[in-house]
Description:
The chain is 34% helix and 24% strand. The chain is of the alpha/beta class. The strands form 2 sheets. It has a 7-stranded mixed β-sheet with strand order 4-5-3-2-1-11-12, covered by helices on one side. Strands 6-7-8-10-9 form a 5-stranded mixed β-sheet, covered by helices on one side. The radius of gyration is 18 Å and the shape is globular. 34% of the residues are buried.
Amino acid sequence: MKKEEETVKYRSLFVSDLHMGKTSTRHGTKPSVLPLLKFLENKKFEYVYLLGDIFDIWELILNCKWDNSFNLFIEQILAMHRKGSKVFYIIGNHDDFLERINGLNAGGIEFHEEVFHITAQKKKFLVSHGQKYDYLNKFSRFFRIMTYSSPKIISWFTYKMVEWTHTLAEKFGKRTREQSNEIFRDRIMKQCYKKDLDGVICGHFHMPDIITMKKGKIYINTGDSCKNFTLVTENKKGNFKLHRLE
């Protein structure tokens, strides 16, 4: 008889940018939550943070594509909640349609634009998708709102306008993706110094990393499930780890 695997207990799980419903090749490949589902087997968490762009509502409106593995992920999160995990859904830019339910507690699952997380070491972290610190996103947001509310033929045009906006900004700004990521990182880290926090945990730029910056402040980006297939955990001692999934 096969011996059952022992449950591995963590304090916290941080995952972002699953983009469930995305069909374009933006950010690399089509999304897959299968590596994430495999990781979650026999794992238990006190806190679960879904850091935005879990659904790609922006593309779902146009393409209406859905994979059964996405249902399995939703069922997994609900099962974790029923077993005692406290679940927070942080609203991103590709699922900013959910901003209208910001602050809602849906049967114990909380929806927020940003929250604070206190680690086992009593350190205070800002938890945010990060789009509000990306100035280009503030401009493209106008076209996303139009995509949600316009007829399909107009929605396709406004959807493309967001893509063109980002492409042209990088081209004429003469910045690489890495340079843009550094600018984003510096902007969001200003919150640590301004509010005397210990660090930031975010997603948005699809560049997974854990970096100790000046004054010991910590920047954590959880990555994505489109290209990097990464997530971040906090163990019982309050230490963070970046997991690169198979």
